[in-house]
Task: structure prediction
Amino acid sequence: MGKRKFRVWYARDPHFGFGPRPGKEKLKETHACLGTFRFLDLEDGFHNMQGEIWSPHGEARALIRSLGLHHTSMSVGDVLEDVEAGEFWLVENLGFSELK
Result:
């Protein structure tokens, strides 16, 4: 099984599951795109977007600040976009749910 292309979207104003559910049509307003990466699946993407994995020495600080973000590790409310499938997956408290 090969890696698939995912766009990573971090919430600009994270509510960590307690705020309004984002809509994919307004994702550019509520989230910032960190870039496109290759992951095996959603769980692999979540794991690899933890700060200690992709920014163990603070390498991402400048990027995070430049995008107006406040968190380095992927968390509840962030989104993984499966570019090839055209699907958007919201990180939930447990697992993921598809944004329709």
About this structure: The chain has one domain: 4-99. The chain has a mean pLDDT of 93. The two ends are 26 Å apart (CA to CA). Residues 4-99 form one domain.
